Amino acid sequence: MMRFTSFVLVFVIFFACEPISERKQPIPSLYQLSQMDLDLDGEKLAELYCGNCHIKPNPDILDKGTWENKVLPDMRMRMGLYLAEDFGVTLPSDNGVPKGIYSEIPLIKREDWEKLKKYYLELAPNTPLPQAEKIDPQVGIPNFEIEIPEFDFLYPDLITMIQVDDQSNIWLGHRFKRLFQLKLDGDFEIVDSLVTDVAPVGIQFDESGFELLSMGLMDPSNDSLGTLERFEKVGAQWEATRLESKLMRPVDLAVGDLNGDGIQDRVISQFGNHLGKLSVFFTKDGREEEVVLKALPGARKVELVDFDQDGDLDVVGMMTQAREGIYFWENIGEERFSEKKLLEFQPAFGSSDFQLVDIDQDGLLDIVMVNGDNADLSQIFKRFHGVRMFKNLGDFEFEEVWFYPMYGASGIEADDFDQDGDVDLVAISFFPDSKQSPRQDLIYFENVGDYNFQPYVTDLDFDANFLIIAKGDIDQDNDQDILVGTFDFDDLYKKASENWRPIILLRNKIF
Predict the structure, then answer these.
(1) Rounded to an integer, what distance in angstroms lies between the CA atom of residue 170 and that of residue 289?
(2) Model confidence at 32, in pLDDT bands (50, 70, 90)?
């Protein structure tokens, strides 16, 4: 035992002096670290302990108060170290956190914890750092006209999903377990509506109907109430067939033939909370077989593309919840996948949405993404939230070539909206700074070349947050319109008192 401990101690001291990017050996486990006498400073301890689960965050990403009162106490309890200050407060076990998330034995010594804590508190700023200097957005979006459809009945503005189908129908999911089908025929009209088991968050259409993914509880929880159902029209009625149940807060559904058998397979992002996973469901002889790509919470979204250009569909996805990043699961045949990390981010990054698009038209798919999820322990304005572009350098290497700060950035769409031959962007924020003027919860970015974009905002006077963004040619004039789903927090806790205004339409007037 002594020989093992001595070897590991020498290894750790050598290891802690190397930059993370140059390390060849894995970090010792938390339990191994807890059994050692580590004569290391706070920064080296943070490298080892924080680096066990994710990239070590720099102290300046959060202010001192947030570190001291929110993040560090939670990290300490996850490592099983409880102090006198924890008595009388709600503990993770009181909130139904599954066993194994918070250790039942101490995995860090008190003296090591105090040094690690001191490192963060001494170097953290007293207040959140401001946004970096950026191009001021111009008010008024060229070629777009803003419309706010209003329906003459009272209903809460709580939209959880928007999708435009091939016939230009607009499908809206609602937090209060409803699915609406809208059509623009002069004015907007409700063509159909369905009651669902839980809040709809994803829909996929085919020639005979659609598949609907419903989330369960939207608020952070460890429930398994999510469902996937198939709807087909029988006469004037929709009939539903349950395909999957007990899904862990699923948030995204993608379909494609991943095994070449001519049958559409499904990839479901089960975001979860403390538990979650990313899974492929293959249809075999009328039953579903699940292949788990990643057994971690935070699966946010995937795209199915032939990313390695070898003739079959691969999976590219976004993971959040501490181990944040963009991952590539190479389809290696026989329903097997090989994982490769494309991008990795620090645990407070707040990854929210992404798209694969060839921005520079070199034949390689680049990554555009937004990070701004702020529904966590550190609910402060973060200077690193915003819209980003990563250029594909080939060989699965990416380089960030553009960043625009945007507090709370949560959704993105990419397309040649002005039809000038390049890709433009539009992003929304669910957690904006309401004091910014002009308001910056919806920003349109016109591509002006060489990875430069001119930002535009609206002069919209609308009291609600924007949760969902989608695009589609809803007026069938051969250009892409933009739809934003409204989500009014106040409507969660009061009776609806205003006419229903579920979406904001940015109608493209290029034609």
Answers:
(1) 32
(2) very high
Q: Give the 3-state DSSP-derived string for 424-477, with helices as H, strands as E and coil as C.
A: EEEEEECCCCCCCCCCCCEEEEEEEECCEEEEEECCCCCCCEEEEEEEECCCCC
Contact yes or no for 469/409 (Cβ under 8 A): no
Q: In what order do the strands lie in the sheet with 170-174?
A: 159-164, 170-174, 178-185, 187-195
Give tens-digit pLDDT for 2-11: 333 343 433 4
Structure tokens at 501: 């205004």
| DSSP-assigned letter for residue 69 | I
At a CB cut-off of 8 Å and minimum separation 6, what does 437 contact?
none
Q: What's the rounded Cα separation, in Å, for the pair 114 and 254?
A: 46
**Inter-residue contact 233 to 251 (CB < 8 Å):** no
Write out pLDDT tens, residues 130-169. 999 999 999 999 999 999 999 999 999 999 999 999 999 9
107 vs 164: CA distance, rounded Å: 50
The token duo for 117 is 């804590």
In 3D space, the residue among 39, 51, 53, 45 whose CA is nearest the CA of residue 10 turns out to be 39
Residue with tokens 């993404």: 369
How many distinct helices (H) and strands (E) make up the chain?
A: 6, 31
Secondary structure of residue 254 in the 3-state scheme: strand
Where does 310-349 show beta strands of DSSP type E? 314-319, 325-333, 336-344
The whole-number average pLDDT for the span 36-57 is 95
Dihedral of alpha carbons 198, 203, 204, 209, sign: positive
The sign of the torsion formed by the CA atoms of 336, 342, 346, 351 equals negative
Are residues 42 and 115 in contact, defined by beta-carbon separation less than 8 angstroms? yes
Domains of the chain: 30-123 (no CATH), 138-216+244-508 (2.120.10.30)
SS (H, E, C) 289-305: EEEEEECCCCEEEEEEE
The identity of residue 314, as a single letter, is D
Task: Report CA torsion sign: 17, 23, 27, 28.
Answer: negative
Residue 145, judged by CB atoms within 10 A of its CB (0-12, 13-18, 19+), counts as exposed
pTM: 0.93
Per-residue pLDDT band for 26 (boundaries 50, 70, 90) equals: low
Say how far apart CA 246 and CA 55 lie, in whole Å: 31
Instruction: Name the pairing type of β-strands 481-487 and 277-284.
Output: unpaired
